[in-house]
Design a protein that fits this description.
Growth Hormone, Chain: A; 7 helices
Amino acid sequence: MVWIGTIIASAVLSNRFGSERMYILGALTAVLWPLPMFGLVNTGDAGLAPLAFTIAAIVQGIMAGAQGGLLTEIFDVRFRYSGISIAYTIGGMVGGALTPIVATTLFATYRSSTAIALYVAALSLVSLVSVLGVRKIDTPEAEAAESEERKTPASSS
């Protein structure tokens, strides 16, 4: 429930503050969270492990909520469906297929979850660097929204 709520909150906040900003926030927290998360899990405390995973759900939910808007801003409308599909599929293969294999190999080699935490942080760093380098498509809608945003005083909601 926390994950779903965070996705919804992040999507709403993305509409207000921009999907790129929200995704950067999520990616930054995803770089920072793996070491403390594994540290909490490794305590063996039955209360700390669920806390660690709940915070991880929040971190991932921030990125997931912003992702849809961000991906539509990256691809021109002519290539949007293909671009988003390819990006999502490759991301799923790297994160969903390779990560468990790499994590198992890292643990077998180092007998520690620290290597796994560093691997997850490194993948998150790739996401952070990638989103910082994203070039958005200039569309009439985006230009109109940006123009309207400049007219609105910062203190109003």
